[in-house]
Amino acid sequence: MTRKSYKNKGLKQNIVISLAGAHGVGKTTIFYLLKKEVIDNPKFKFFPERYKKNPPFPFGSKNKQIAFRSEIHFLQQLIKRNKNIINYDQNYNGRIVILDRTPLCVLIYSKGLFLKEKDYNLIKDMYNSVSWREDYIVYLTAEPETILKRTIQRGSLETIRKEWNETEMNYLKNILTFYQQMLIIKQQEKKLFIIDTENESPQNIVEKLKNIITEITHYSFKKCLASPSWQMNLSKFLN
Q1: In the chain, what are the domain boundaries?
Q2: pTM here?
Q3: What is the mean pLDDT of the segment spanning 222-226?
Q4: DSSP readout, 107-131?
Q5: How would you class 144 by CB atoms within 10 Å of its CB: exposed for 0-12, middle for 13-18, buried for 19 or more?
């Protein structure tokens, strides 16, 4: 069967689910744990947050010009990923596509870094010019102190991360505040799911994510937790 004939079978379109959350909350860990669990399952496709391991500019810089350049770079990476997802859509159908990070994060971090208004507006205009492939967002959250502790515990995965200011509490709280503000509309559209990761092991979080995937796509994992109510109040975790 050719890919073209496969597309003509009338199967459901791919469903794209983004994992979101502040740096250090554990979304990339969960992304790769789930990927490892379903690695041989053609039903799933995973796209990382970026393709360049080491960005040309440090993320989270206090220097406004450097911060602007880093967010432009990240936006370019997300646009490239979005094109790859659209290309994937043209060849495959009925798949569950998992993304590490939501494209919205580039606006959230640009706000959290308090870029100059003209620089933020340029990033926002570029963001709005893209037709983003994203159906649902799963937002991972925890108390700021917990997120900061996780960030410190994981150490420097890359030498360059020492320049990212990830262990600054005020920076983290700013990011959490802007996540709250910008995800509200997604919650109103019922496209947002929240997982409170406080006091949860990575495997428990993966199980909760699998349960959300089942709720969204009706895909049945072999082992799935009882279904809770996922449409929670976002401010419960971020105030």
Answers
A1: 11-238
A2: 0.85
A3: 51
A4: HHHHHHTT--HHHHHHHHHHHHTS-
A5: middle
In one letter, which amino acid is 77? Q
Secondary structure element (H or E) that encloses residue 18, with its range: strand 15-20
Say which range, 1-10, 21-30, 84-93, 205-214, has the weakest mean pLDDT: 1-10
Give the tokens for residue 182.
């910008």
* Residue 89: φ, ψ to 5°: -60, -35
The string of pLDDT tens digits covering residues 41-57 is 999 999 999 876 676 56
Under DSSP, the state recorded for 14 is: P
How far apart CA 36 and CA 232 sit, in angstroms, is 28
Question: In the structure, how many helices (H) and strands (E) does the chain have?
Answer: 9, 5
C-alpha 104: how far from chain center = 8
CATH architecture of 11-238: 3-Layer(aba) Sandwich (3.40)
- Euclidean distance between CA atoms 49 and 51, whole angstroms: 7
